[in-house]
Amino acid sequence: MFKAIRITVLLLILFFVAVSNWLTQSRSTDWNNSLWVKIYPINGDGSNVSGRYIDRLKADSFEPIESFVAREIGKYGHSIARPVRVELGEEIREQPPTFGDSPSALDIMLWSLKMRWWANSVAGPQDDPDPDVRIFVRYHAPADHFALEDSVGMQKGMVGIVNAYAGRRQAGTNNVIIAHEFLHTLGATDKYDPLNGMPDFPTGFAEPGKQPRFPQRLAEIMGGRIAISPTDAMVPKSLDYVTIGPQTAEEIRLVK
Questions:
Q1: Does residue 176 lie in a domain region?
Q2: Which of 20, 132, 224, 225 gives 20 to 30 Å between its CA and that of 10?
Q3: Does residue 219 form part of some domain?
Q4: pLDDT value of residue 27
Q5: Predicted pLDDT of residue 146
Q6: How many domains does the chain contain in total?
Q7: Domain of 167?
Q8: How confident is the model over 12-26, as pLDDT tens digits?
Q9: SS3 content of the chain, % helix, strand, coil (to 5)
Q10: What is the Cα–Cα distance from 151 to 52, expressed in whole angstroms?
Q11: How high is the pLDDT of residue 24?
Q12: Backbone region of residue 158 per phi and psi (left: phi > 0; alpha: psi in -120 to 50; beta: other values)
């Protein structure tokens, strides 16, 4: 009897969590109210360079993300003055969970659960109420020979991890990556080849009908890069050179 009650309680908890996640995700893409996005800086490499950069960060550093979303949703007939409100949280002193080498499907599922628990545990003490979306940005000192780990955004839990460079020259590119991962939390999917980073045609192209096709002038946000040629693409320097394409707009319910 006790076992049956315990199982029933656990099932009810899972049901309410699932319903709560569904309601949160649904509200996040109704585009009737502002979404509160909070960014938490992390010193990803423990360097003084990253530490000094984080100390100088201000909420205004991420204003281009707000402007980008407002501009792009306006193209799809929405007129919210401030659809996204970005705030800067306090520095997080703990590193997020890692995937490990060659993760299996089970490893990824467990990592997702750990990630959501970690996000609540490290950010929760400074959040009241909780933001709609949490983005943790791990800053690293700029280096030509150093490649950053992939960033990730999760719709379940609405949490993102961004790996970024701690330099003013890279601030615009950092905002492009943050915006990309933010849209992942709303349900947008990648539109590029993970093996070479080239945008998928046509969904990952900002101007798929352009003649000649190359070079493209803009990047589709989930395509991630501006296609310069059939074999070459570049990350845009700022969100001024990025747009939200039709398929991404459908995925985040800008068009219904």
A1: yes
A2: 132
A3: no
A4: 63
A5: 59
A6: 1
A7: 31-187
A8: 555 555 555 555 555
A9: 40, 20, 40
A10: 22
A11: 55
A12: left
Q: What whole-number distance in Å separates Cα of residue 148 and Cα of residue 150?
A: 6
* pTM given for the model: 0.90
Q: Is residue 203 part of a domain?
A: no
- Residues 35, 68, 234: CA angle, nearest 5 degrees: 125
How many other β-carbons are positioned within 10 Å of the β-carbon of residue 26? Answer: 10
CB-based contact 45:142 (threshold 8 Å): no
Contacts of 11 (CB under 8 A, 6+ apart): none
Name the stretches of the chain with pLDDT < 50: none
Q: Which pLDDT score is estimated for 70? A: 97
Instruction: Give yes or no for a contact between 64 and 239, defined as CB atoms under 8 angstroms apart.
Output: yes
pLDDT of residue 78: 92
Dist. CA 194–CA 69, nearest whole Å: 25
Q: Which amino acid is at 199?
A: P
Q: What pLDDT sits at residue 30?
A: 86
> Are the C-beta atoms of 199 and 213 separated by less than 8 Å?
no
Both tokens assigned to 85: 């409100």
The letter for the amino acid at 12 is L
Is 124 strand, coil or helix? helix
* CATH code (residue 79): 3.40.390.10
Could you identify the residue written with the tokens 């909070």?
A: 38
User: Is residue 206 helix, strand or coil?
Assistant: coil
- Asked, for residue 95, whether it belongs to a domain, the answer is yes
Which pLDDT does position 2 carry in this prediction? 63
State the pLDDT at residue 15: 52
> Given this model, what pLDDT does residue 21 score?
56
Q: Which residue has the tokens 């490290």?
A: 122
